[in-house]
Automatic annotation (TrEMBL):
<comment type="function">
    <text>Attaches a formyl group to the free amino group of methionyl-tRNA(fMet). The formyl group appears to play a dual role in the initiator identity of N-formylmethionyl-tRNA by promoting its recognition by IF2 and preventing the misappropriation of this tRNA by the elongation apparatus.</text>
</comment>
<protein>
    <recommendedName>
        <fullName>Methionyl-tRNA formyltransferase</fullName>
        <ecNumber>2.1.2.9</ecNumber>
    </recommendedName>
</protein>
<comment type="similarity">
    <text>Belongs to the Fmt family.</text>
</comment>
<dbReference type="Pfam" id="PF02911">
    <property type="entry name" value="Formyl_trans_C"/>
</dbReference>
<feature type="domain" description="Formyl transferase N-terminal">
    <location>
        <begin position="2"/>
        <end position="108"/>
    </location>
</feature>
<dbReference type="InterPro" id="IPR011034">
    <property type="entry name" value="Formyl_transferase-like_C_sf"/>
</dbReference>
<dbReference type="InterPro" id="IPR044135">
    <property type="entry name" value="Met-tRNA-FMT_C"/>
</dbReference>
<keyword id="KW-0808">Transferase</keyword>
<dbReference type="GO" id="GO:0005829">
    <property type="term" value="C:cytosol"/>
</dbReference>
<dbReference type="InterPro" id="IPR041711">
    <property type="entry name" value="Met-tRNA-FMT_N"/>
</dbReference>
<dbReference type="InterPro" id="IPR037022">
    <property type="entry name" value="Formyl_trans_C_sf"/>
</dbReference>
<feature type="domain" description="Formyl transferase N-terminal">
    <location>
        <begin position="125"/>
        <end position="207"/>
    </location>
</feature>
<feature type="domain" description="Formyl transferase C-terminal">
    <location>
        <begin position="230"/>
        <end position="329"/>
    </location>
</feature>
<dbReference type="GO" id="GO:0004479">
    <property type="term" value="F:methionyl-tRNA formyltransferase activity"/>
</dbReference>
<keyword id="KW-0648">Protein biosynthesis</keyword>
<dbReference type="InterPro" id="IPR005793">
    <property type="entry name" value="Formyl_trans_C"/>
</dbReference>
<feature type="binding site">
    <location>
        <begin position="136"/>
        <end position="139"/>
    </location>
    <ligand>
        <name>(6S)-5,6,7,8-tetrahydrofolate</name>
    </ligand>
</feature>
């Protein structure tokens, strides 16, 4: 079976490597254009591109796939590459570009491969098309940031869905799903890694079953639909009036990106790890007030309970355990995090 693979970040690279390890032929990879990154802002290839080049796979990096869009020449070149690849199916994982209808139509027409047989009503008989590896249990958390939103919402479990793509946003029929528990200490980084390996394993299983007509698509239920909207940097600021548990989920959900943050005066501090504390609020304590400071962390009052911050980072600095952070940034009990800095004094101009 020949596969066109479309993906960009590490989540997708893991799936591509699993497909190659399983013996599938990948004549073409689609990935995002190289982007400037790092302190020097040098152009860097995506993890998927790096993997493809290591295996001698042709790479296309269109800025858009819309033939009537801003970059029609990119889309036309990608169309020619897709046709030349003569693939049976496209696998999509965190690609970052919307697939227009012409891509869905082209890949649906490619199936089944010559000589393949499949029972009536199976995926093979009705067209495999484009398969997406989605990091949630659809229809919950359709959209761009399912891992972040699952942690932020306090979900007890998530998982991976292998789905057939259609014109909607993650609305296509489901082929395989598998659940995964979210632990109380999971961050987006830790959960991402487990889901990525699960997704790579499931897409291999799905394609092997589809080749012999062993998959039956199931429509997504109409109930339970939620949307995982893209994470914005503006969401990173901690509101200390919220319960400690809610703030803790925010810290874990935004680790590693964009990083939950607070302020002390004009200084921004990122928060990377914490412990829940059962401190009872008192009328003389303000939300965000530092209650105590020691080598174990910085205890901060919240709307309900308190958080002991155990890993912090100041602007331009490194992520540090609290004991090291406090040597260079001596926080004190009574200071209030997240408070508005005082307005600068206006000098008198005289009579």
């Amino acid at each position: 079976m020949n596969i066109i693979f479309a993906g960009t970040p590490e989540f997708a690279r893991i799936a591509l490597q699993r497909l190659l390890d399983a013996g599938f032929t990948v004549p073409l990879v689609l990935t995002q254009p190289d982007r400037p990154a790092g302190r020097g802002m040098k152009l860097q290839a995506s993890p998927v591109k790096q993997c493809a080049l290591e295996h001698g796979i042709a790479v296309a990096q269109p800025r858009s796939l819309r033939l009537d869009g801003k970059f029609p020449e990119d889309a036309a070149a990608a169309r020619d590459a897709l046709q030349a690849a003569q693939a049976d199916v496209m696998v999509v994982a965190a690609y970052g570009l919307i697939l227009p209808q012409w891509v869905l139509d082209a890949m649906s027409a490619a199936w089944p491969p010559e000589g393949a047989k499949a029972p009536s009503g199976s995926v093979g008989a009705r067209g495999l098309g484009c398969l997406n590896i989605h990091a949630s249990l659809l229809p919950r958390w359709r959209g761009a940031a399912p891992i972040h939103r699952a942690i932020q919402a306090g979900d007890a479990e998530t998982g991976v869905t292998i789905m057939q793509m259609d014109a909607g946003l993650d609305t296509g029929a489901m082929l395989l799903t598998e659940k995964l528990a979210i632990t109380p200490r999971d961050t987006t980084a830790s959960l991402h890694d487990r889901l990525a390996h699960m997704g790579g394993r499931l897409i291999v299983e799905a394609l092997e079953l589809a080749a012999c007509g062993g998959l039956q698509p199931v429509a997504q239920p109409a109930q339970g639909v939620t949307y995982a909207h893209k994470i914005e940097k503006s969401e990173s600021t901690v509101d200390w009036s919220l319960p400690a548990e809610v703030i803790g989920r925010q810290i874990r959900a935004f680790n590693p990106f964009p990083g939950a943050s607070t302020t002390l005066g004009t200084e921004t501090i990122k928060l990377w790890d914490y412990e829940l504390h059962s401190h009872q609020s008192t009328p003389d304590k303000r939300y965000g007030q530092i209650l105590s400071v020691d080598n174990t962390g910085v205890l901060v009052a919240c709307g309900e309970g308190a958080l002991r911050l155990t890993s912090l980072q100041r602007s331009g600095g490194k992520r540090l355990p609290a004991s090291e952070f406090l040597r260079g940034f001596p926080l004190q009990p009574g200071m209030v995090l997240g408070a508005e800095p005082p307005a600068p004094a206006i000098a008198s101009t005289g009579p």
